[in-house]
Predict the structure of Uridine kinase.
Amino acid sequence: MLSDALAAEIVHNYGRGRRLVAVDGAAGTKLFADALGVAFREAGHAIVRASLDDFLQPRAVREQQGAASAAGYYSDRYDYPTFLRVLVQPFKLGGSAGFVGASFDASRDRALEPRWLTAPADAILLVDGPFLQRPELRGIFNFVVYLEPDTSKLDPRIDGADELYIGAVQPRSASDAIVSAFDEDEPRRVFADRC
């Protein structure tokens, strides 16, 4: 199974300590990251699951360029400073440092009361979401899986935002693993020639 193979590869390359793994892509990342998390757990590794969708900006900020704006979806949707400050940076510290796995409740359009978490010294933070290789996040992850969805099934706003992301960042070429999710039931790894 693909998730088992990827989990084994990641653990082989990053065996000890706090490791950060991203499942990046415009769609399907949560489901794929959940399967990867199960593979890590079944192999005996401590996992902390997080989703970029739990670090949204308030609706007024997200929609300041218009509710249907692809540019707004790409540039205004997520609160990257909070994501870094309350989750990534304290998780990387290890030890007894507490971190927060979610900061925003989209259904109520308000910040969540912080719920502090801890993890053992050898733990994997597994994050899913789009745009995880943006310049402000570049280099924070030990391993990035880039999930390529069937763009014909995407909402036009999300597809447009993904095109902006691909044009700005070239996430496919910077990823450690590329997974084609055109068949959602049978994702498969593809290899890009980087020469």
